Amino acid sequence: MLYVETISSLVPEKNFESEETNSMMDLFIELKNEFAAFRKDIYSKVDSFSKLICPTDDTIQNEDPRPSLQREIIETELKYETSMFASVAQTSSAIPEGKFNVLVPVIKDKRVNPKVVIKGARKNSGLKIVGKMPKRKAIFLSRLGPDTTVNDITNFLAPLNLKFLQCHRLKTKYQSYASFHIEVYENDLKQLLDSTFWPEGYLIAESYGKLRNDQISQEVIPGSDSNHPSCLDLSTNTDSK
User: Across the chain, what does the average pLDDT equal?
Assistant: First the structure.
């Protein structure tokens, strides 16, 4: 392509077919020699430039040894992979300098539980069964008068016909008000979170987490209800802090 463009610039297109063969051959030979010299010059420059980038062994011995870019990249990637998988498959011993371990993630086999659990299906029998206990939910009730007792709360909640109720008076920072922890079955929680049921000024919020003994100011006395004999009914002491 370069030969044709050069000839086209030197010889007009209208006279190209009228030139004699010898003249054309001379022109091609001359161009060939020029391109050969040009190519030799380019190769010489490329060779000297490549020696600057990648010096020979003699040059390396005379200069300070420096790692090649390719080696730096490989070492960086290996160090990164080593740190990524060290917590999975690496032992506590350190890796010797200049050596790299091939680390493979460890996949633990899932153990199959050999126990077989069945559920009875017989309807009529002389045996009694204790059904699954419903889940419980609790609320935090505050800003009541300081003389309010657990018995007052149970009497106030009596119209709701709760199947289960457990109430504790809580320790408060100040003596000017009383707070209570009220626990019911999950399906009765909605009634306790109805703002229209409570007097104006009371603070009601759903309570999460287990009630600790050090939070309780007033204990409940075990009792029973008609559906769940093991449940706690409410009784009260008037002691409060």
Answer: 71
Q: What is the mean pLDDT of residues 25-50?
A: 73
Residue 58 burial (CB < 10 Å; 0-12/13-18/19+)?
A: exposed
Q: Indicate the residue type of 162.
A: L
Q: In what order do the strands lie in the sheet with 203-207?
A: 203-207, 136-144, 178-185, 165-170, 216-218
Rounded Cα distance between 149 and 235, Å, is: 9
Listed in sequence order, the residues at least 6 apart from 216 whose beta carbon sits closer than 8 Å to its beta carbon are: 168, 169, 170, 171, 181
Residue 31 — φ and ψ, nearest 5°? -65, -40
Beta bridge partners of 22: none
Residues contacting residue 147 through CB under 8 Å, at least 6 positions apart: 178
pLDDT computed for residue 79 by the predictor:
62
Count Cα neighbours of 97 within 13 Å in the Cβ-side half-sphere: 0
**136-215 CATH:** 3.30.70.330
Q: Which residue has the higher pLDDT, 238 or 160?
A: 160
pLDDT at residue 219, rounded to an integer: 46
* Domain chopping of the chain, boundaries: 136-215
Is pTM beyond 0.85? Reply is no
Residues recorded for the chain? 241
Closest CA to 194 of 160, 170, 163, 167: 160
